[in-house]
Every structure is written in C-alpha cells, then in structure tokens.
Specification:
It is built from 7 helices and 2 strands. It has a two-stranded antiparallel sheet. Strand 1 and strand 2 form a beta hairpin. The protein is globular, with a radius of gyration of 20 Å.
Length: 160
Amino acid sequence: MEDAAIIRRLHAAKASSGKSYSEIAAETGLTNVYVAQLLRCQAQLKPDTSPKLRAALPELSEELVLEMMKPPMRSYHPNLIQEPAVYRLNEAVMHFGESIKEIINEDFGDGIMSAIDFYCSVDKVKGVDGKDRVVITFDGKYLPYAEQKSEHMVSRLQLQ
C-alpha cells in the first residue's frame, strides 16, 4: 500500500475518533507531535505502544498497525516550505538560530542538539494579554563534537 493511501486511512481513523492529537497523546503517553508523526508515517509505532494507540483509535485496522510498525522513510515534500505555518517556523529557527547556537555552545560546549534522541510538543497557552500563544518545545539530547584523535579511530587500529 502506498504511503498516501495509508496516511488517508490513518487520518480517517483519527477523524472518526473525534479526538485531537493532544487527546490521543494523553491516552497513549506520547507527545502530540509524535502522534502526528505516527499518523503521517514519519515515525515507527513500537509494539508496546500499539495497544494504547488502538484503544485511542478503535478504527485502526491490524493492517494499518502493521504498516505503522515498519521503519518509515522519514522525509518531506519539497513544497512543504511553502505552507505558511512551516515557512514561519523555519523563519523563526533561521532568525534565532545563531543566538540559539551560541547559547548551546556557552552552556554545553562545542556540540549540537540531537534530532534522533528528541522530543517535540506543541502547546496552547494564554499570553499576558489574554491572547492565544503557541509554545513549541524542542527537547533534544546534547551531542558534543569529538576531537578526532587518530588513536581513537577504530578503523585505523584494526589496520595495525
């Protein structure tokens, strides 16, 4: 089955449940963004989570669950950047990126935030003015860059 057809069926199961991503997340113990990733075939459903997701989305067929358990092709459509919400998110990261990098380096050292050991959520809060605000949390493991010493290079050690 093609991903587009799977995604349509997954979204139909979500729609028939009448639940939001956040409600499904609360029932499964996942983040709302991870639930959305699962339903877009951008994350792999783990066996321990499968029963919880099926309870939250009763119309998920066994066939869809098995499809969701396959390692996904994590990608995106090249035109995605044209979607205004995605464009603005990208713009915010690009605008604040250098400052964020400097603070990471100052607080942690020379390294990066993992996008693999990574959690992401979207929350809605009221601002001090009473208006709705979007809170996006990126929670990634810190990964320091390694000094590349030849004595630590396993492939070189095996040649000796």
